[in-house]
Amino acid sequence: MLDAIAATADWLNQMSHRNKRAFPWWSLAAVVFLSFWGGVLFIIGHDALIEVAQTETWPSTEGVVLEATVEAESVQTGEINSTSFYPHVVYHYTVAERQQTGDRITWNNDLSFQSTLQAKEVLADYPVNQAVTVYYNPQNPGQAVLRRGGGESMEILRGLGIIVLAAGALFLCLFSRSLLLWWRASHR
């Protein structure tokens, strides 16, 4: 890793000597771009993980499954067509004598599979007209889940944000060096 940083710094040094008066705009643009998007990814992932963690403390009540189906979503990118399958569950539950309806299995509802068989395996836990445990938000009983926790995709998003922020910090170091070289060359 340090060899790559040193090689990039040498390359920046050579670029600065070729064109002594050119301001290193591309370095500044890379720092701003990477820092902004890294921060956005990190904040979205981190906030979602906080919400997911809160489900661990939610109280439970009994509910009844009304509907359990597999939904398919096809996405075409160029000539490649891919289909994802999602388990979809609708359930009723009662909190403080008020009927509520929910449709989230997990807080992020991020259960996505490559086959209907995998989605049906999740639905096996939620047969129609059967009782289920529902975890609800005590401050907003209309928010509920059938499974506490989860959020693995948000951990990936937060981790990606950290990586992009680290790349922005690396470019900041490189930009500082190229800015210093530009300053020295333009003020001789």
C-alpha geometry: elongated
Q: What integer value in Å does the Rg equal?
A: 25 Å
> Main sheet, how many strands, which sense, barrel?
5 strands, antiparallel
Please tally the β strands and state the result. 5
Fraction of helical residues: 40-55%
- Amino- and carboxy-terminal Cα gap: 34 Å
Describe it for me?
The protein folds into 2 domains: 2-52 and 156-186; 59-147, no CATH class. It is elongated, with a radius of gyration of 25 Å. Helix content is 48%, strand content 28%. With 188 residues, the chain is of the alpha+beta class. It starts with a helix and ends with a helix. Strands 3-2-1-4-5 form a 5-stranded antiparallel sheet.
What would the keywords be for this entry?
188 residues, 5 strands, 4 helices, alpha+beta, five-stranded antiparallel β-sheet
What's this entry about, in short?
This protein has helices at residues 2-18, 25-54, 116-123, 152-186, and strands at 60-77, 80-95, 98-102, 131-137, 140-145. With 188 residues, the chain is α+β, with helices and mostly antiparallel strands.
Indicate the topology.
Blueprint (H helix, E strand, L loop, with lengths): L1 H17 L6 H30 L5 E18 L2 E16 L2 E5 L13 H8 L7 E7 L2 E6 L6 H35 L2
Antiparallel strand pairs: 1-2, 1-4, 2-3, 4-5
Helix pairs in contact: 1-4, 2-4
